[in-house]
Amino acid sequence: MEFHGTTVLGMVRDGKAVIGGDGQVTFGQNTVMKHTAVKVRRLYHGKVLAGFAGSVADALTLFEHFEGKLEESHGNLPRAAVALSREWRTDRMLGKLEALLLVADQEHLFILSGTGEVIEPDDFIAAIGSGGSYALAAARAFASVEQTMPLEEVVRRSLDIAADICIYTNHHLTVETLG
Questions:
Q1: Which of 84, 83, 29, 22 has its CA nearest to residue 53?
Q2: Which amino acid positions bind Na(+), per UniProt (predicted)?
């Protein structure tokens, strides 16, 4: 059995990036071990946001590797994302890590996976984790009808909706903003 962190949502619009995540950590299939985990962090001198879903220890290892890739690329997020995904897919140890990362700067938003995927969504809205599809649907709905709603509010409301639906997601939110 492993510890899992869930539901992270990110958006980029008009030179602003926001990533938010809930605080629940689940052990196995049915035990909530923590309610106030922080799954979203600032990286590379506060210029990049990153969130994770999946195995907590694996995600923290990936954060360290990703920060190293950001340093090597002098903060170039697309280059660092590709470099991490390439290493994650080909390195024996990293290849066993079970987590997804959602990373953003003020221009880009990527989902990174251990299968080598580097996905930049067309609408600059992405979510990962068990409640990710609920949060994503809510964010897209808000974005389509509330063009003036601040991104932080869209992310918070969308994560709250996911928490109302997904048993692996709670209402203790951490939201980080750039720009």
A1: 22
A2: 163, 166, 169
Give me the residue label for tokens 């299968």.
115
- pTM beyond 0.90: the answer is yes
What are the tokens at 159? 């994560």
Annotated binding site for Na(+): 163, 166, 169
Q: How many residues does the chain have?
A: 179
Q: What is the CA radius of gyration of the chain?
A: 15
* Active-site entry in 6, 7, 26, 174: 6
3-state secondary structure of 173: coil
| Binding-site residues from annotation | 163, 166, 169
Residue 132 CA to residue 167 CA, distance in Å, equals 12
Count CA within 13 A, CB hemisphere, residue 138. 24
Residue pLDDT, tens place only, 49-94 = 999 988 777 888 888 999 999 999 999 999 999 999 888 878 777 7
6 is catalytic: yes
- pLDDT(34) > 70: yes
Q: Specify the range with the lowest mean pLDDT, choosing from 1-10, 11-20, 110-119.
A: 1-10
User: Vertex 115, ends 155 and 160: CA angle to 5°?
Assistant: 15
